[in-house]
Structure formats: C-alpha cells, structure tokens
C-alpha cells in the first residue's frame, strides 16, 4: 500500500533527489569498491545467503584467533566445502579466494585483510589513533560523533572501565579540537553553538545490571557512572547522545535520559541527545512524550532519528519468546514512519535539535523538501551518516551546504567486529538503499518513490497447534506491577493452614510447615502431611475413581488439561509469587516455572489429542488392524521442589491425560505449590479421587512406590533416590499384577565447553546464567566450565568479574539475580562442598552473603582436576568448577567423564568443533552457543541418560507413551467370502 | 480394451441375444421382487455398502441365534445406528424396517423372513423335503444338480457324515426318479444317455485334511470317502460333478479327479465331471491338460464352465498373504476368458460334455452363436443356472428348446446361510448382469456388447516401503519340492560340529548337542558352548568393535540389514528345513518363522531409515533444535527356541541397526538356528566383533545381564527368568555407567472367547489352530477357550472331533499338522500339567502318540474353574482349558483374570460384544474372528503387558526407540544480530 502523499511534496522530493544524485557524481561507496571485494564476492554475498552467513561469521570470529595456523584451519572449516564448488574461484576476500585453488593460505594475510575492512568503518583503535582522521574530517567540513566500541559489559568492573574510557575521550578530544580551524557551518545551529566534540553513549555498557525488570536499580547503577560523564561533557564542552539498543530496553533508556537530565545540575545541559528508532511502532508516541518533557525542561535536546539497527536480532528474539513484535515488520513501514517523524521533529525544532541518520537518497530529499515546506533554515537540522558508508551521499549533502556528522566508532578490532558485521549486513541486505543503487543499479525513479508497504504475510502455524506460553515481558510496566501486587497479596496470606486435597481422606501425618528461604523465620504456610498408613487408603480411593476416569473420552481429558492451562494463565503472577516466597525464586525464574507448567498442560493435551486416535496399521483387504492406547493404571508422582509447579505439572498431567489415576507427593520443601497445582487440576475438572495429594517426606514416596497396585512411578529427584526406586520397583510384591515402570529423572553434572574461537561475551554470560540461575538448583545447571587453554585466563578473569557483579539477595526484589538456596540442609551440604573444593582446587571467588536466609554466594573453583569430587558429584548449588583443556577433544573427554549425561553446552565458532560436539558430547540436551538451562517444552524435550535418568524426554513426543499400554486389535473382516468395502 | 471379435459372430450374438431377451418376456427374477425387498431396500443394498455389509452379516448370523429376544437385540446392534437415520423407513427386510419406526421387533418374524429368503435359493432342507420341488422342475423341463449344503468340515467325523449324506442322497434320488415321466431333452445328449440324478460334490467336505501341502495325504483322505460315492453313482446311475473351491485347492482337486477316475473301477464311469472357473488365469492350460487326459482315459467327462464364486475371498486372502493373484482382476477379463473357453469346450465336444453355468444374456447368446458356427446340435451342451436365480433366462433357454439344469442346494438353513449370502452378494454386486439388466435397466446393446477390459489400476504402495514377506504357497509344486530337497540336504549335514562365531575367542564351555525332537537319538549338530569366563572377553571384544559400528552411517547399517534379508530370502527353504529338524516345526510353521525373520530385518531397516534422520523441533527463528538418536551401547540378546530365527533376528537386528553391539545367546535348545542367523548377518556385512554369538545355558544369560557394561538386555522367554533379569538389572553393579534397560517378552495364558453369535466353523478352526499350532509352544498360543453357555456343548463336541482328527507326527512329513514338543523336559512338564488337569477338571480328549520322539497329543479339559492352576499357569504345550461363561461380560472377566496380558481372541458376530472386547479385553494383541497366533510385523506389532512383558511391541513403530538414547541439540544461530536464513 502506498500512502497518498501530497503531489507537490513528491515533486519536490524527486527534484531534490535528482539534484543530490547529480551531486553524488558517479562515486561508489568504499564498501563496493574492488579494493577487497571481487565482483564475484559481492554477487555471492548478495545472492548466496549461506555464503554470506559463513563469511560474516568467519569475519566476526577472526580477531579472537591469535594463532595464524588456526586461522587457516578455520577458513577451511568455514569455506572448505564451498571452495570445492564451481563458484570457488572468484569469491570473497582475495586471500580467502586462494582456498579455492588449493593454495596454502596465510593466516596473517587473512587477518590483515579483515583489519583493512574494519578500518573502513572504524576511525581508529584509540582516541589518539583516531585524532588525525577526525581532524581530517573536520577539515573536509564533516563533524563527527565518537562511539567507543567495547565488549558487552557483564561486570561492574567493565562498566567502570567504559565510564573511564568516556571520560578520557572527552578529556583528550576537548583538548585536541581547540587547535582546529573554525568551521562555522558545523559549530552553530538554529539554537546556538554546537560543540566540536560529540560522544555517543552505549548506556548498557555503563552497568551490568541494566534490566527493565528493575527500573530503579538500573537507573541507579547507570546514573552513578553517567553523572561524571555528563559533568565532563559540560566542561568540555561536548554533546552526549544516548544510542538506542535492543527493544526491551527502549523505555528504560528513555526513562534514564529524562530522569537524569532533569536532575538540577544537568537540567541546563543543552547538548544532551537521544537516538530514536523509526522501526519501533511506539516511537511516534515516545516522541510526543519527549517533546512534552523537553518543554517542561525548557532546555533543548538533540533527537537523532535513525531507522534502527537491531531489527533482525530483536525480531528473532521476540519471535523465539512468543512476544508480540514491537517493531514494524516491513521495511517500507519503517520508512513511512521515518518520514512522518521527520515532519514531527522539524516542526518541533524550536525546542529540539533534529538530527537525521540516513543513507537513503529519497529520505535525504524528503527531509530537504519538508524543511523547505516549513520554511526552515538549513542550520535547523543536521545529517548523520556512518563513517565509511555512503560516501557519495556525504559528498552530495556537503556540496549542498548542509551540516553533516559522521558516526565514527573508535576501538580495538576485536570488540569492533560486531560493529563491522552489522555494517556489512546493512549494506548487503536486500533492502539496503545502497545495495539497490550501487549494486543493483535501480532507476532513480524507483529509488525516489514513496515507501510501498506490501501486504502482510500470515504467521506460520506451529505443528500440532501447540505454542509455548510466552515468558513475562518485564519491560512492560503492567507486568511488573501485576507481579508486585501478586507478591503483596501472597504476603497477606502467609502463615495459613491449607486444607487437605486427599479426596475425603483425613491424613494422619504431622503438620508440614513451609518456610521462606529468604527469611527462615517466616512461615509461608502449612499443610497436613500424610502418614504411611494413609497411602493404602489413598490408593484404594484412586483405584475406585479410576474406573470412571479411564473410560472418559480422550477429548474430555484433553479439555480438562486445557482448562487447567487457562486457569494457570489467568493466575500466573499469583502462582509465581508463591514460588518467590516458598522457594526463593527470583521473578523471572518463578515466572518461567509457571509458563513451563502451562506448556506441559497444553503440549500433553495436544499430544494426547494426536496419538489417542486409534492408529490403523496396514491396508490389506479383509483385515482391520488398530493400535489403541490404554492407561497403565495407578501412577505415583514423586516431585522435586526446584521446579515446584512445572515438573509435577508435567508428570501429573501426562499421567492424567492418558487416563491414569495419580497419587501425587509434592516435595516436602514446596508443599504449597504442590497444593496449588492440585487445586487447579480439580477446578479444571479432574474428579477428586482421580488425583490425590499426599504431602510428606521420602517415606511416603517409598511406601507409594512399593505398593503392589502402583504400576507407574514418575519421579524427579536425586540419583540416589531414583536408583533406589528403580531397584525397589523391580521386586515383585505379593498381589502385584503388572511389572512396574519407573520414569526417573535424576541429576546432572553439566559442563559447558568454551573453545578458543568462542565469543567470550556470550560464553561468560552463558556460564554465569547457567551456573547461578536459581542458585544452581536446577538439574540442568552448569557446574563445570571446561575452557581451552588459549582463552583460559581471559575467560576466568571475565567470569570472576561477572560473578562478583551478580546481585544476590531477596528474590522479592525484582533486581535480584540470585536468591537463597532452598533450606538450611541444602546450605550446609553446599558449604561442605565449598570446603572440599578449597582443598581440591583453587578458589577463584567465594561469594559471601551476610543477610539472614539460606544464602550461598556464587563460588568458582579453577584448575579443577577431572577426577576431583567437586568435578564428579552433583552439588546442586551455585558452585562452578573450571577446568583447563588443551584441545577440544580433551574438553569433550573431560565433559563426558562423569556418571551423568543430562545437559551440556559448547561456546564455539569453529564449525568443526560444533560438529564434533554434536557427534560426541554425550548428554541428553546439548546446547550450542547458548545457556544450558531453560529447555522449552516441544522445542527442547528434556532428559538425560547414563545415571541422569531413564525414560523418554519430558515435553517430547515419546513422553506420554510411558503412561500407556498399547493394544493392537486385529479384526478379520472377511465373512462368508465378503468384507466391508474400504 | 476390447478384443476385436469377428463381426459376423458379434452380429449373431446380438441377434440371438435379442431373441432370448424377447423370450424372457418382461419377467423379473424372484430376488428383485417386492416379496421381501422393498424398492428402497434394493437401492440401499445396491448403493450403500455399509448397509449391505450389515444386512448380509446379520442374515449370515441369524440362524445361529435360537433365542428370539437375542435376535431383537442383535438387530438393534446391527441397525440401531442406521435406523435412527433418515433412510430408516424404507429399508431392508420388512420386519427389520420396523426398527426404523421404533416398533417392537419380533425375533420370530425376522427369522421367518430370512427363512423365506433362503427358500428362494435352497430347494429343501433335506432330500425328502426337496423331492416334490425337484419333480416339479423335471416336469417343467428342467434338470437339476443337487448340492448338499453343510458346515465346514473340520474333523474326520464330519467328513464321514458328508460322505454318508451323499450316499443317502444318491440312494433316495435314484429311487424317486424312476417313477418320473420321461424327458427326452434332458435324458440324452450328443454322447449318449444322461442320468436323471446329478450330485455336485464339495470335495473339501470329504476330508479335514484337504491341504495342497500334502497332495498324497489329501488324496488318500478324500479318495477313501469318495470311492463308495462313485460306486453308488455308477449303480444309481447318477452324474457326479466336482465343484471347484478356493484357488489354493484347484490343482489338488483336478489331481484328485484325474487320479481317481483313472483307477480301473472308475475309469469307465462316463458321468464324472468337474467344474472349471473362468476367473482363473490358468484355466485355459488346465483345460488343455484335461482334454489330453480325457483322450487318454477314452471315456468322456463333463466340464462345467462357471465364472467362479470365490473371487472376493480368494482375492482378499491372496492379497493379505502378499501372493500374486492367480485370478483375473477385472470382471471383463473373466468374461473374455469365459468366451474363449466356450469355444474350446464346444470344439472338444467329441470327448467331453460341455455344461455352461451362466446368468448372462450375452454369454448365452455367445454360446449359441459359437455352437451355430461350429455346426453343433443343441444336445451337445447344457446350460446350468442356479435355483432361484435368473428365472427369465431359465424361461428363455427352455423356450429355445435347450437343455437346462438347475444347481439346487439342499440342506438346513443354518449351514445354508453361507450359500444364501453368496447368492445375495452375487446379485447385488456392481458387476452382476442381473443387476445391470433388472435393477439398472441398462440397454440391450450395452448388455450384449463384448467384454471391455478397463486399464489396470496400479497396486497401492505400502507405507514406509515395507511389505511383509509372503508365506510360502505350498500349493505350488516347485515350492513343495524345494522344501523336500532342502530337508534332504539338511539331512546330509546332520551330526556335524559347527564352528564358533564368537569373533576370535576360543570358547571354554562344553560341546552343546542339538537333538531332533522327533527322533531324540538323532544329533542334528553341535556347537561349542561359552563358559562364564568367556563373557567378559566377549564384552571386551564387542566394546572395541562398537567404536567403528556406532559411527557407521545409518544408511550403511540399513543396507546391511536389507542384505541379510535378501540372504535369508535366497535360502529360506534351507533355514526352514533346519527348523523342522532342530525344533520339530511343521513345514508351514518353519516357513513362517523364516518369513517373520525377513520381515524384522526389512521393517527395522525401513524404520531406522525413517527415524534416524535428525528430527527438527520447532521453527522459531535463530534457533535450530534437532533430535538425534544414538545407540545405547552393549546389548545382550537372550533368545528362546520356539521362534528360533524370527525372535532373535528381531532383537539382534533392532540392536544392530540402531548402532549397538550385540552379544547373542541363542537358546541351548536351538543353537544351530542361532548360528545360522549370526552367519547370515556376518555375511551381510556386520563386522565380526560387533555381533558375538555365545551359545550356552541360562548361566551365560545371567552373567551377561549382570555385567556392568551391558546396558541393554533384550530377552524373550519365561516370566520367571524375565522377572529375575529385571530385578538383577535394577541393581547397579560396580563400574556400571548407565541405568540398564531390560526389554522382556514373557509368557501368556491366552484366551479365546466364543459367544453365542459366533460362526462355529470359524471358531472351532481358530481355537484348534491357535492352541495346537507348533504344539502350543508359542507365547501367543491359545490355552483357554471361554465359551458362552448357549453354544458350549456344541462347540465342545465339534472341537473334540476336530482335535481328534489332527495329524500328529513327524514334521518332516508335509501332512503333519502337529509335531513333537521341544524336548524331554518340556514333555515331562506338560505331562505333569495334564495329570494336574485331570484332577482339576474334566478331561475331554487326551491325544496319545506312540511313536518315539517328544510327542504330546493335543489335550482338552472342559468345565475348568477360572482359578484352577491349569487356568492360570502357562503350560506351553498343546493343552487347552475350556470354560463355560454365562454372558459375554462373564467371559471377559474370566479372560482378564490372569497375571498375563499377551494375546486374546473373540469369535462373535455381535457388534456390541466385539466393541466390548475392544474396550475391555485387556491384552496386548486382541484378535477378532481369527486365530490368535501369527502376528505380522508392522500390521500387528506384538507384545503384552501385566506380567507378559515390558517394553514396546516388536515389529512396531516404537520398538527401535528402546535401543537408543535420544539427544536434543539446540543451537542458538543468532550471532552478532544475524542468523542464517531459513
């Protein structure tokens, strides 16, 4: 759809566009020059997506590799298969092309060429290095804005370092520019003087804790480091522009900006600015709010309008999470929004300094045309373009006498790669204007046409109609306040005695109290426990109720599960709040447990709907063979406390939907969440006796499992208990009528391997998240990091900083990243391991928490021997053992050398190593280049082997089959020489 | 395709056809009269196949039901759902139509109407009853041929009874006809006098042992009863015509006919005749051979050309078995063949009496035309039509002065139902000429056109490209002689010492001798057994070999299995012959074991090809989730002797194809077949150490299962051993690295329920086959028959006769139906149970076998209490316990009241009871209206629950999953904000 624009304006756009095109005079952007691309390479990267991916991935990884020979083998890994193909001769970097003819590659040459590529876009490796170039730009009539490239900030130390680099940059630059020639066009605009120095700020680099879940904590953490920078800028003088980043942080960055620059010392600063992204659906209202704010402030700001650089990753991330996409999905929608915002900003130029970041000829002409319409002088706005990009347009606007500022990154090659790749992607994308003009040579008429939005494409349907329940988006203020409110409500119900949910049975055990692990003196609630004598009565009850349940239609049982899912969805904050209080789960962990429980209900419902239909086998005439699935019978579910809702929901709902009756023993450490699950299922329509809740300790589980009528035992817990149950179940009890089945999910001793090609930003973050998430109390948690010797020290240093920066505390606080462990017994056991580890290995960091509650600070041991006890035994706490490996094979050997085989991870950018891991990393769930916890139902069915478990993966296709008997019914349909027609 | 016929002939056909149509003068066949069909009923039966099926099934069952009230409930079961629908008002039998308006049905009325239907086609309930009608026909100028209706012959007693009925009929009729008026047209033909009496013989009714596998035995058994009949016919005089039956017996019946009527006393008998079926592809050569034979005999015979009445059932049966169909698939091909044979017979009329059975106007005209062409007098041939059918054509040929004979069945309603239903089917089929003329009123031009054969339709492809290997068709003489030759060859190799197949290991156990159960003094061969000490070495060997095997591509392992299948196919008779000698299996049982082994190889190959491809989970952008299947590791296969090739092939090949290494212990009772399996797999390409054969006793199995490296134990055998293995495997051994998995298939105590609606012909046959097949030594064997009290005595009486008629003996003889049991130990154990049964219940029959060898005669106990030991314990021999049940529910209760749940069967024609069985008969494999053994791979995946087994069904989709670990690999593919395109 093309919006009808005013014909006059369009005519002006065309006219000015044609003039600008003339002014750009046949030049070609550096990027498309033959200097380091061959024409064939451009064609390949433009048209062969596989090649482009490989090429950019290779470039991205390259600076990490210090060993020249390794560069050569990696080039073979990346391009070996392709080099053999017909297109091998002409492609890619000139040096890389040599692989195509089989010549020996020089690692040094490859690196040198990539550095040369980077230099196109990066103004210098340091401020000092960049200064001559910046001066040259100035002399050509181009202003600039410095962007200090850096790694992702994952520790306070790194945040401090970024702050210090900003301060140094402001200091140095303000010195240097004083000697430069005046450039009147660049030093004044419609509102007054413009500083020669401009610094673009990456706000997320100023804190390891920038997280929309905790706006206050985020602000404090950022503001603490931001204030000295603002003060320095005011002194310099210099402009400061907040860059925009990922979609989740937009509102947070705007809030930090407006809050900080209303603080009295900074309110008068006239050179603060903010980037705004046209691809965001909410940018128009955001701008309205900012304009209202700036009028209140009474001191202007700069608004830098850009299209937005995170579209791909934001889109992928939101889609993965099932969140509604806050960005426009079509490039043309963004372009249209950009144009609308151009007018808004220009109209508001009495209170703001508009800056337009664009490399699009039409957009440039459009801005000119609107400004003309509004009768604005050309000093009212400035153009911003990226250093090294769209040089012909730079030239054109300069020749037209416009103020131009180049966005100029400064930094080392290594952290600069992410930036380089982003630029390469931008220039080669199908929708790049530069590509359209300079590679595809589209006609000027086409290029200057208004953005045309194509019809929307429908979303792809998921198989089986199942969709993962999206995690809460805590960047949404309503979501945050709902959670706060739920915690308040739960707090009001603390300490109550909960009713029994064991059918009509009166349980004979003692009261079972549930304490808040963050405040051990606080009773969350209590339930009546079952005595061993109650087990027999419960089984009788469930056996009677089973008769009706087993013959209920599959459709009806599926409906009940879906109803239960809907109920959980409607009360998700409340359920999560109980987890915060009863189990000490931080908000996100608690929320994720609830969504996983919903997923189990919906997935098993969908699966049962699929497989419960009798399956016809064979199509021979005269015979009708069908496979039917029947429930096995009585099922004991013995559940753990660490995923107090999701894990029992999975086991209980699988048993129920397939038609079994269930005696459910929640963990004695999370009896209340267990009750909430049972309540929900009963409310959804499960008849009372079909699901009986027997709170209690291990003796109840044991008694249940040994009862002759208990035919299926679904257990999740420790290896020791699981193996005991397996052994006990294999002994036939008097009166038993069936071989028992035990589905046991046991422990893990999970490792992440980090090789020398790994992206350490990702790897450190992934190891921290995997090992400290819910205080390491996940069977999937990482408790071993196996690091290639080439990056061992670097990894360890960054890991140490990141761990030290974690916020450990009460999980009721949204900013808390790690809460307590579950109870005193767990705390003592973990502390014993820490003591042991201190003897076995080198203690790198031992977190200490002084507040009351069962806290364990995150703890890291380095140089651990693969045979050490802390390398072999499951600790179930935030204790990480780090190993040094001398090769990837060595790392795999270490990783596989335990009794467990549950989860594992690899951070690597070596295709060969990733492939080796796929083949040989012997775990049930292997994760490549991502954290190793958080398996999603259906997408990552979960479960291990060796001593990590027996049975099919939860949340996967085979899981329900464990709860059923399969019967094959074969009817001979031929009678008296005739059979029904098929 | 229409064959170009001579225009003159076609012109004559049209002309005569039109004349015959005129002569048939507007009459309508009785069948289509309104007497008992409403017009709506005809329409429904013609156009609604479901209704037709239900109606004919109901009619078929009706005479069995003696209780009027039961008739009413069954009518509701059959038509209840339909009666509620719109078409309820007009359909069906008039009385049945009442269900449509909700009126109370009278069982008596329904029965009376069906009897009336039957009377249309059945000349009388006995010869005496039929005589007046026959005389009336004669007086109208119609000859007849009597067909004595009867139940299927399943015992010698029943065969004797049929013989006696034939003799009586000949006696009575030859008396009666003497007083009838002469009818010159009917009493003379071109070759001389024609007797007034003609009897059509159902040869299969003359022996319970008519079986093409044993032509000699079949001949003797039939001839013994046939000779007195021929002698009586010679005395009478009377013509005797052999009716043709199912396709498998065609050659056998022809052989019996030609052999018997060359015997000196019968060679001169000029009134013998044989029906020949035009639908048989081989009939033309058969006729050539018969003409050559009759010229040698020098005395004419009658050849009755019919289209053939077994097309549907033959086609279904051959398709079920995967045999090439020996019949024409298109009706028009049969018609064309019929016309060709008309000419052949008429041309040979100097040596034969041609008789043409047809109700097709064109065919009648065609015969007339060809005869005219050949210049034959009309006495040369006769027409045969069916009593009660095509009356207008009867009239027409009579008016034309032709000799007509009516095929007139005589017999009780109950056994006559099969006949009635066949007639109803014939008249209502889409291809029925009568339907075309009298219901669809097709034009005479169409009806008289030559048969047009439509283009062939391709066979339907089976899913997964898998097809069951067809059983041997022993009606084929080459198949029989191949088996005879194989047995001779095997006999020449008896007594040899077989080489070890345990890699390079030298086994330390004693020699293990294999004896022929039929001749215990005969050593079939011997192998070296393994000692317990060999187990460790074998596991080490297999462990080393595993390294290469596990990483071999799935494609390659699939190829190896397919190669092994091809090898077995190429040597199937040899393998079967070894089973005859080593295990005492009769031919068909031995052959079926080999084909099942081939099926396992092909099916698991196809399955692995299907599931080994990594399965993608989810399609979210930026993540790539794959499920991969890896082998678990070392697998012990502990196999039984009763399916000495198929069962170990299934277990071994499943473990191998999925990438495991295997230590295989064949049963000490069938070590040679075990060796043959290993030989075949090694020859097909399994590397030596990957599959190690360790012959030996239970101690070897135990040692294998307890070894810490043995991670999977696939066992088939007794419940006791299976439960022991399960218990032992659940104890973790020192050094063990994985929870062991035991796949155990254990015993059964399988029941067949026979209700009051059952077709006893089928039920008795099914129980006999299921309980005595391989001497009851199948886990699927029937050891209990639970019979409704209404048919208890009748069932028991027929069962007793059938069992008494079984041929027990040396399985090398193809006529043997039951051989010995496996060894002396088995014989002693079964005899103990027979002794016990004699105390617990009423001994109905105890088979006695006097020849040497481990024989047990088939034994039946009646009035068994459900709690008796012979009702509860697996006997594994040909011992059947019969129970009386007072209702179907009661029968189900008895059936379900054991520790086992393996197979079960129901013989019933009550839709409600069949449905109840589907819901409540708690067994792994339930069979309706068919024997309960012989599950086919893929079509009937096999296995039970309770104490009958744990694990997925063999030959089914889930089986291979037990031998693998499932690994889910999740790669985050988003790097630096970009991910590969999907």
Structure description:
The structure is a homodimer of 982-residue chains. In chain A, helix 15 packs parallel to helix 16 (361-374), helix 23 (554-570) packs antiparallel against helix 25 (587-611) and helix 24 packs across helix 25 (587-611). Chain A is built from 35 helices and 31 strands. The longest helix of chain A has 25 residues, at 587-611. Helices cover 45% and strands 16% of the residues of chain A. Chain A starts with 6 loop residues before the first helix and ends in a 10-residue tail after the last strand. The model of chain A is unreliable at 84-95 and 97-104 (pLDDT under 50). The first copy, chain A, is α/β, with parallel strands linked by helices. At the A-B interface, helix 3, helix 14, helix 18, strand 15 and helix 29 of A face helix 3, helix 14, helix 18, strand 15 and helix 29 of B.
- What distance lies between the first and last C-alpha atoms of chain A, to the nearest angstrom? 52 Å
Oligomeric assembly = homodimer
Judging from the principal axes of the Cα atoms, what is the shape of chain A? elongated
Largest sheet report of chain A: 8 strands, parallel, barrel
| Secondary structure: helix percent of chain A | 40-55%
Radius of gyration based on Cα positions of chain A: 32 Å
**How many H/I helices of chain A?**
35
**Largest beta sheet: strand ordering of chain A:** 1-4-5-6-7-8-9-10
The fraction of residues assigned to DSSP E strands of chain A is 15-25%
Tell me how many strands of chain A there are: 31
Question: Overall pLDDT of chain A, averaged?
Answer: 91
Low-confidence stretches of chain A: 84-95, 97-104
């Amino acid at each position: 759809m093309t919006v009808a624009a005013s014909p006059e304006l369009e005519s002006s756009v065309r006219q000015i566009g044609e003039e600008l095109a003339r002014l750009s005079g046949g030049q070609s952007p550096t990027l498309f020059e033959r200097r380091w691309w061959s024409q064939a390479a451009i064609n390949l990267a433009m048209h062969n997506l596989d090649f482009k991916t490989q090429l950019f991935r290779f470039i991205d990884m390259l600076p990490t590799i210090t060993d020249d020979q390794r560069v050569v083998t990696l080039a073979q890994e990346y391009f070996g298969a392709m080099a053999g193909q017909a297109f091998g001769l002409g492609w890619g970097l000139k040096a890389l092309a040599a692989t195509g003819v089989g010549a020996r590659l020089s690692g040094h040459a490859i690196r040198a060429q990539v550095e040369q590529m980077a230099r196109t876009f990066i103004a210098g490796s340091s401020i000092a290095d960049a200064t001559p170039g910046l001066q040259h730009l100035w002399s050509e009539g181009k202003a600039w804005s410095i962007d200090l490239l850096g790694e992702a900030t994952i520790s306070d130390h790194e945040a401090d370092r970024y702050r210090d680099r900003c301060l140094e940059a402001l200091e140095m630059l303000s010195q240097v520019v004083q000697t430069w020639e005046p450039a009147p066009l660049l030093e004044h605009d419609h509102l007054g003087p413009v500083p020669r120095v401009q610094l673009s700020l990456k706000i997320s680099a100023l804190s390891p804790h920038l997280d929309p879940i905790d706006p206050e904590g985020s602000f404090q953490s950022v503001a603490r480091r931001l204030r000295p920078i603002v003060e320095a800028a005011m002194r310099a003088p210099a402009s400061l522009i907040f860059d925009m980043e990922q979609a989740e942080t937009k509102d947070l960055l705007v809030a930090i900006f407006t809050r900080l620059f209303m603080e009295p010392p900074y309110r008068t600063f006239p050179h603060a600015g903010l980037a705004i992204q046209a691809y965001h659906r909410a940018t128009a209202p955001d701008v309205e709010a900012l304009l209202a704010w700036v009028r209140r402030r009474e001191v202007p700001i700069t608004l830098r309008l850009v299209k937005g650089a995170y579209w791909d990753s934001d889109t992928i991330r939101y889609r993965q999470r099932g969140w509604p996409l806050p960005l426009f999905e079509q490039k043309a929608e963004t372009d249209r929004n950009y144009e609308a915002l151009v007018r808004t900003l220009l109209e508001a130029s009495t209170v703001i300094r508009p800056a337009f970041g664009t490399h699009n000829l039409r957009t440039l002409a459009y801005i000119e045309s609107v400004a003309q319409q509004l009768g604005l002088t050309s000093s009212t706005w400035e153009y911003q373009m990226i250093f090294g990009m769209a040089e012909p347009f730079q030239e054109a606007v300069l020749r037209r006498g416009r103020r131009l500022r180049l966005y100029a990154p400064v930094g080392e090659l290594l952290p600069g790669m992410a930036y380089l790749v982003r630029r390469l992607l931008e220039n080669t994308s199908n929708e790049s204007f530069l590509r359209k003009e300079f590679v595809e040579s589209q006609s000027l008429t086409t290029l200057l046409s208004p953005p045309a939005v194509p019809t929307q494409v429908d979303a792809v349907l998921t198989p089986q109609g199942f969709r993962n329940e999206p995690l809460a988006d805590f960047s949404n203020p309503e979501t945050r306040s709902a959670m706060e409110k739920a915690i308040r409500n739960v707090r009001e119900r603390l300490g109550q005695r909960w009713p029994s949910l064991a059918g009509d049975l009166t349980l004979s055990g003692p009261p079972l109290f549930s304490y808040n692990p963050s405040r051990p003196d606080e009773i969350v609630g209590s339930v009546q426990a079952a005595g061993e004598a109650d087990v027999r009565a419960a089984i009788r009850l469930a056996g009677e109720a089973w008769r009706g349940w087993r013959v209920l239609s599959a459709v009806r049982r599926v409906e009940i599960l879906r109803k239960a899912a809907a109920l959980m969805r409607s009360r998700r904050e409340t359920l999560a709040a109980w987890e915060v209080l009863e189990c000490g789960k931080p908000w996100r962990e608690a929320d994720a447990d609830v969504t996983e429980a919903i997923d189990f209900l919906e997935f098993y419902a969908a699966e049962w709907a699929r497989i419960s239909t009798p399956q016809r086998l064979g199509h021979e005439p005269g015979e009708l063979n069908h496979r039917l699935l029947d429930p096995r019978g009585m099922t004991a579910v013995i559940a753990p406390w660490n995923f107090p809702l999701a894990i029992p929901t999975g086991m209980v709902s699988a048993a129920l939907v397939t038609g079994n009756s269930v005696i459910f023993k929640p963990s004695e450490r999370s009896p209340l969440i267990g009750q909430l699950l049972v309540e929900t299922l009963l409310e959804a329509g499960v008849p009372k006796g079909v699901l009986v809740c027997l709170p209690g300790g291990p003796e109840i589980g044991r008694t249940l499992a040994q009862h002759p009528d208990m035919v299926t035992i679904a257990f999740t817990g420790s290896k020791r208990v699981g193996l005991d149950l397996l052994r006990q179940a294999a002994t036939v009890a008097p009166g038993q009528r069936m071989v028992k089945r035990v589905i046991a999910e046991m422990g893990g001793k999970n490792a992440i391997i980090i090789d020398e090609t790994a992206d350490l930003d990702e790897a450190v973050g992934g190891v921290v998240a995997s090992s400290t998430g819910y205080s390491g109390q996940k069977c999937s948690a990482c408790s071993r990091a196996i690091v290639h010797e080439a990056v061992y020290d670097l990894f360890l240093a960054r890991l140490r900083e990141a761990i030290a920066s974690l916020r450990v505390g009460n999980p009721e606080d949204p900013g808390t990243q790690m809460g307590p462990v579950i109870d005193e017994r767990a705390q003592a056991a973990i502390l014993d391991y820490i003591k042991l580890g201190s003897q076995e290995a080198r203690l790198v960091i031992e977190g200490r928490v002084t507040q009351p509650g069962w806290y364990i600070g995150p703890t890291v041991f380095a140089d651990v021997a693969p045979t050490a006890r802390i390398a072999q035994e499951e600790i179930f706490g935030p204790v990480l053992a780090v190993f040094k490996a001398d090769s990837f094979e060595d790392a795999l050997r270490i990783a596989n050398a335990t009794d467990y085989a549950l989860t594992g991870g690899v951070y690597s950018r070596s295709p060969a190593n990733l492939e080796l891991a796929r083949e040989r990393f012997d775990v049930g769930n292997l994760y490549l280049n991502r954290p190793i916890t958080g398996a999603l139902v259906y997408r990552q069915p979960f479960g291990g082997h060796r001593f990590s478990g027996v049975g099919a993966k939860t949340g996967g296709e085979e899981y329900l089959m464990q709860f059923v008997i399969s019967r094959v019914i074969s009817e001979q349909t031929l009678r008296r020489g005739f059979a029904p027609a098929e």
